[in-house]
Automatic annotation (TrEMBL):
Domain SHSP positions: 30-142
Ranges annotated as spanning the membrane: none
Organism: Magnetovibrio blakemorei
Protein name (database record): SHSP domain-containing protein
Domain of life (superkingdom): Bacteria
Length: 142
């Protein structure tokens, strides 16, 4: 048995092969598997940051856009299997097109966004708008 965090253990035995006999079970598993790359968002006093794991995706196959306050990240992880005569018993590797969208907070500055891609991780940095003090001292008259 091979265990991965957050995944169902894969049994290499009769129980595993039995799934081939139950097409609805296999179909349910495939419907639940869609290519939505994992992401995390963080913030500090000056900036928001969104990191998306995209291992195996080429930088040229990634698009980052801002549309009405929503950050859109889309792209494609292309299948590069050219192995004649080989059939796969199972595959947990996701291929195909993907899209993630993130509604930005009101204090995010849509004019100051940058993106960098390194080691299979896309990092999008969004500056926060500079806040001007609205405080005004009111003199007290005698």
């Amino acid at each position: 048995m091979v265990e991965h965090a957050g995944r169902t253990p894969v049994h290499f035995g009769d129980e595993w092969w039995g799934s081939f006999a139950d097409p609805f079970r296999v179909l349910a598993t495939k419907v639940a598997d869609f290519f939505a790359p994992p992401a995390e968002a963080s913030k500090d006093d000056d900036m928001y940051e969104i990191c998306i794991e995209l291992p195996g995706v080429a930088e040229d196959d990634i698009s980052v856009a801002l549309d009405h306050g929503t950050l859109l990240v889309s792209g494609e992880k292309k299948v590069e299997r050219h192995e004649e005569g080989k059939s796969f018993i199972f595959s947990e590797i996701s291929y195909g097109k993907f899209q993630r969208s993130f509604r930005l907070p009101g204090d995010a500055d849509g004019e100051r966004i940058s993106a960098a891609f390194s080691n299979g991780v896309l990092k999008v940095s969004i500056a926060k708008k500079e806040t001007k003090s609205t405080r005004k001292e009111i003199p007290i008259h005698k």
